[in-house]
Amino acid sequence: MHNEKTTPRARLTGKWLGALAGGMVVAVAAGLLAAAAPFTANAAASQAPAACVTMPEPGTAPPPEPGEPQPTTVTTLEQAYWCILTNYYSGPVLDNRELLVAAFRAFTLELQRRGLDQPIAITPAFTGDRAKDWTAFGDKYSEVLATLPDDATLRQDLAITTLKGMLDSLHDDHAHLSNMFAPTGPGPGKAWGLGVHTQPVGPGGEPSPEKAAPLYLDFIFPGSPAEAAGLKVGDIIAKVNDVPPYVNGVLAPGVLAWLYAKYPSADKVRVTVQRPATGKTWTVNLTPAAFPWGVTPSAPAKLVGGGIAQVELKGFFPGAADQVKQAIENLRKDARLRGIILDLRGNGGGDPAEVTKLLSNFIHDAVWGSFCDVRGNCTPNRTDTTTPLLNLPLVVLTDRNCASACDAFSNAVKDFKLGPLVGTRTAGIVSGPAGAFLLNDNTTLLNMPKLHGLGPNGEVISGIGVPPDYFAPMTAADLSNRRDPGVAKALELLKH
């Protein structure tokens, strides 16, 4: 990895952008607005290592020259500790002890996993004094390391595991680590794997709350191994590598790992499927491979139910609101419209500016959400008064894959009573506008939101999602037989 012939800047430019994916989010955990457990914020700059490097937002400036990659050491952990306390949304009131206990827990669990647990690996007593607590942690961490084999790979793995434990203690969907030099995919515009998305699984590949069997395909990526093998939406996954997806009613993470193979794994996967529409059961062998990926910047629309515009929007990409508006106007040229079905199922979010623009077609001068710091200082997001209103009845279709900006849009529609939501609860995967911070190993990026947000009425969406007004879940049988209960319910509502 370190012997690549590309320059550090070239590698950084090509890798770091993924760290800022996710776009817009809105939520605030109410408890974070109150003071955390007592601590003494007495850490002067002279007591901390050099500050982490704030990366510019994509497109605003070239990323800084990172230098050659270095080992991730205890000084890197110290830098990350202060970086979180300084730059994370709740850093000013965060109890530092939670970071350090979580980090030490991750460190000792990894020692146990490797059969390297040590008698001296005992958590230091932390007092809430940020500087003194770090000194106690760093001393103990270094003391334990000194008893371990002199293995650079081992020390690197332990440091990254410890750092992940520290960051995971934030319990924030948009706070994570990334490695700018790690092979994250097969190339621009490409994804890797079998090319399937299953239900019940959320946007991040983790099981959704509605974990009941069966596990079935709700999307097949064009050009993927799954499409080439003839799999279709609605097909039920009966077994993967001869293992059933559910054991005693619990969805097995190992089965999901096989189905969602990560780059560059190319192990063959044996999948047994059942097709509800025909009753057929068969087995196919699939090998992970590269396939085209990305949200197509379009808003396809069609007339349904005699004068109803059905518009599908898979992301709040730049220009999304204008495309939705234009699609509706194009249909208006040939028909007298009676309503709009806006299909946001599978919409992974995007730009908050597009949320503002799209909502402005339905309501003027309304605050649909606010970005806030931990002290409650908020900047409102307000719809404009210059966009002509569409003045048509609206129904919005949602599901568990409607995330981030899609969560926010759906929540505003519900709060302002712009029209009913139909489908299932949205993802609730929201947090705040993200920032990326480079650590002194010249490799690791901390990705953390600097702000959180609130909905129109000050409500929290993160971890909760937005419930529909009318539940219309899609089943495997519906998909396999090309039925759409969400659209059917929307048409019923727009008839009244």
Helix content: 25-40%
Strand content: 15-25%
Strand order across the biggest sheet?
12-13-14-17-18-22
Query: Structural class, judged by helices and strands?
Result: alpha+beta
Shape: globular
What kind of sheet is the major sheet?
Answer: 6 strands, mixed
Quantity of strands, as a count: 22
Rg estimate, integer Å: 25 Å
Tell me the distance between the termini. 62 Å
The total of helices stands at 12
* Unreliable runs: 1-46
* Average of the residue pLDDT scores: 88
Summarize the structure in words.
The structure is a single chain. The protein is an alpha+beta fold. 26% of the residues lie in helices and 19% in strands. It has a six-stranded mixed sheet with strand order 12-13-14-17-18-22, with helices on both faces. A four-stranded antiparallel sheet has the order 1-19-20-2, with helices on one face. The protein has a three-stranded antiparallel sheet with strand order 6-9-10. Helix 2 (74-87) runs antiparallel to helix 4 (130-145). The longest helix has 18 residues, at 96-113. It is globular, with a radius of gyration of 25 Å.
